[in-house]
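Subject: design request, 474 residues
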């Protein structure tokens, strides 16, 4: 996590570049039809924290990863606290921590500088504050609990302004409060929605409409059934053992005080189902659901008396739940180990690529168009054009490509780095791999020449283009 000088995921580079641009330019959200053609797709909390750590001298990738790692440690701790709260069983609490700590999903995204882990840590922390009040009401129905509700509200707002889809926790709290005390539920829902709307509209007004344009309009990527199926397949392979445990004890869970966590899990699954098919999504969309599954699985073991039966060496079929639990742990650590080996190999390839690419990329001045965002962070600390989102927005007619076309025509870009050979008419059909429209690619083929062909750590080959005059040595 700290050794790697280069990206561990492509979106990590985009977030890092935008945080660096915030440090240097004091601006975060950009006009969709002006340079830089990049979209800050998330609400600002993570960017501000990453930029702040960068300002005190921590490298931007390390800064983001430290934030995520602290968040995932907090998330693991909260899993244990919630299991303890609803069972009063230390075995269940330690199982929740173990399930979360061995989840390859949480280990993967808890070491990457992206917004997700922090957002869902804050969301689960908000629900934990409600859960404390829920258990307090169980023992003392007349207790008010304004303090816990205030903490829950503040954390839910912070979660939403870290990632705008972190809405399952406040929705669950509101729904559960409505069932118990409709006045408190209505007040909480109005306070959360009102605060989020007021802050968002204020930011949007201060930024001339750019905040909502970036975080809402430009975030409506196309949906893909293939992507949704891939997400479900990955979810089943990574969390199938936990699903088995929860499924066996589902009826008892629903009748227990922990039904509140099931409500939250159901809403998190709903958000996952709606957002997972989006082009550009990855397994980071499963973080919240996975963390809640870890909690529910640990509580489920308690509800079916697994710990008591297992310690008594009973021959009950319930003790067979050790098998899916063990599968989850073993699969999690095996996947994490394989990922670590893969990351080391990719990091070494990135270092070689950066060394080979650096002579073609000016550190200051001029324009550079690159599908390799990691190289832009390392060599330029900024993005001039983010081809993936730019191409999607142009295709959706939300962005005018004409300024970029004119600049390509007159050779204004000092370097163009693509993952395709435009001289051969190669086309990229995968929407998740950055490319440009046919018209822009045609401008590159006419006004630029291939200067170098470099191995790309993830996509085979990369092609470096420079203006035709430069390539000819004139």
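Subject: RE: design request

Done. Sequence follows.
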């Amino acid at each position: 996590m700290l050794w790697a000088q280069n990206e561990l995921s492509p979106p990590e580079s985009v977030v890092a570049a935008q945080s660096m641009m915030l440090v240097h330019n004091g601006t975060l959200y950009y006009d969709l039809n002006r340079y830089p053609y990049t979209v800050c797709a998330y609400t600002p909390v993570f960017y501000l924290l990453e930029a702040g750590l960068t300002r005190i001298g921590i490298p931007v990738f390390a800064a983001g990863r430290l934030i995520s790692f602290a968040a995932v440690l907090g998330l693991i701790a909260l899993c244990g606290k919630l299991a303890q709260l609803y069972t009063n069983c230390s075995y269940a609490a330690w199982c929740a921590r173990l399930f979360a700590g061995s989840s390859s999903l949480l280990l993967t995204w808890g070491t990457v500088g992206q917004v997700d882990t922090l957002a869902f840590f804050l969301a689960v922390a908000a629900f934990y504050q409600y859960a404390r009040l829920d258990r307090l009401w169980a023992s003392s129905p007349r207790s008010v609990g304004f303090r816990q509700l205030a903490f829950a509200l503040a954390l839910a707002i912070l979660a939403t302004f870290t990632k705008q889809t972190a809405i399952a926790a406040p929705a669950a709290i509101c729904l559960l409060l409505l069932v118990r005390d409709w006045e408190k539920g209505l007040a909480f829902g109005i306070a959360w929605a009102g605060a989020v709307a007021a802050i968002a509209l204020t930011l949007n007004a201060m930024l001339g409409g750019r905040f909502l344009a970036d975080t809402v309009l430009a975030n409506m990527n196309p949906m893909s059934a293939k992507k949704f199926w891939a997400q479900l397949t990955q979810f089943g392979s990574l969390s199938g053992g936990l699903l088995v445990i929860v499924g066996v004890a589902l009826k008892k869970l629903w009748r227990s005080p922990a039904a509140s966590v099931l409500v939250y899990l159901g809403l998190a699954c709903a958000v996952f189902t709606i957002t997972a098919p989006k082009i550009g999504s990855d397994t980071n969309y499963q973080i919240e659901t996975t963390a809640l599954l870890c909690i529910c699985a640990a509580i489920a073991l308690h509800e079916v008396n697994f710990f008591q039966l297992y310690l008594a060496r009973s021959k009950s079929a319930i003790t067979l739940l050790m098998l899916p639990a063990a599968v989850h742990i073993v699969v999690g650590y095996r996947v994490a180990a394989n990922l670590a080996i893969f990351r080391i190999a990719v990091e070494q390839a990135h270092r070689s690529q950066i060394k080979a690419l650096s002579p073609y990329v000016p550190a200051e001045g001029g324009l550079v168009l690159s599908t390799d965002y990691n190289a832009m962070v390392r060599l330029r600390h900024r993005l001039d054009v983010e081809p993936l989102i730019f191409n999607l927005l142009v295709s959706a007619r939300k962005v005018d490509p004409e300024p970029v076309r004119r600049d390509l025509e007159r050779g204004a870009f000092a370097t163009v780095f693509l993952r395709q050979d435009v001289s051969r008419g190669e086309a990229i059909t995968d929407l998740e791999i950055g490319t440009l429209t046919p018209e822009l690619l045609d401008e590159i083929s006419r006004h630029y020449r291939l200067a170098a062909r470099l191995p790309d750590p993830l996509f085979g080959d990369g092609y470096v283009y420079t203006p035709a005059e430069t390539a000819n040595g004139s």
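The two ends are 44 Å apart (CA to CA).
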